[in-house]
Amino acid sequence: MSAVRPDYLKGRVAVVTGGCGGIGRAICQRFHAEGATVYATDIAKPDFGDTPIHFVHHDVSQEDGARNVMNQVRDDQGKLDILVNAAGIEAEKTIEDTSLDEWNHSFAINVNGTFLTSKHALPLMRAAGGGSIINFGSYDGFIADPSLAVYCATKGAVHALTKAMACDHGPEGIRVNAVCPGYVDTPMLRSFFGDSGDIESLQQAVRDVHPLRTYGQPQDIANLVNWLAGDEARYASGQLWVIDGGLSAQAQQMRL
């Protein structure tokens, strides 16, 4: 973790969807350390120990869930300064192997969830006099990994939505950006590695394909999100911030 400044987000109110996940949890903890009042939302309650982070049960695919989260924040705090749309799922299939239900479910979480939570957050951000929305795209929204067709499609949609939101709500002082990670050491990545064969060799092969010869940690992503949430990023909006250890900068065929 980079140096923590307990006053960087002092007085700010933040909502982080997917707060139970590897990256979402790291963001919640970083925001709290930087002085924010934090609401983690998810379908399962995360264990933050003694850290006073609020939890709200929230299925991001349901509009009532978004309303309930924002109603609680309004009743408790009267405003919202920061929204991080970190909830997401991944389906490891080609389109031929993907059912329509699986396709729709992926869009319901990754795209509809971003839309609905942001939609119902906007009035509270206006009450705060502006704010920062940070969506989660992916380097897979620019280039494609094999057998991640629906995931790539959802992240491309989030990228386009981010730019549209930034244009629409910038005049209200609301900045909108997307963080686009590559490989990060999370439960999602560990499920990709599976539980058979030489896992360490596979992990090392994934590290080696990166110019930095490593993949990211959740704290690496939280560092960037934390910066985008605060005033140091006051002129940053409508951008897709790729953080992938240089993976997408190289011509992959040159590594054959």
What does this protein structure show overall?
With 256 residues, this protein is α/β, with parallel strands linked by helices. The chain folds into two domains: 13-181 and 217-237, 3-Layer(aba) Sandwich (Rossmann fold); 185-215, no CATH class. Helices cover 41% and strands 14% of the residues. Strands 3-2-1-4-5-6-7 form a seven-stranded parallel β-sheet, with helices on both faces. Strand 5, helix 4 (149-169) and strand 6 form a beta-alpha-beta unit. The longest helix is centred in the middle third of the chain and has 28 residues, at 100-127. The mean pLDDT is 93.
Key features of this structure:
Rossmann fold, 256 residues, 7 helices, globular, 14% strand, alpha/beta, 7-stranded parallel β-sheet, single chain, 41% helix
Please write out the topology.
Elements: E1 13-17, H1 22-33, E2 37-42, E3 54-57, H2 63-77, E4 82-85, H3 100-127, E5 131-136, H4 149-169, E6 174-181, H5 187-193, H6 199-208, H7 218-229, E7 240-243
Parallel strand pairs: 1-2, 1-4, 2-3, 4-5, 5-6, 6-7
Helix pairs in contact: 1-7, 2-3, 3-4
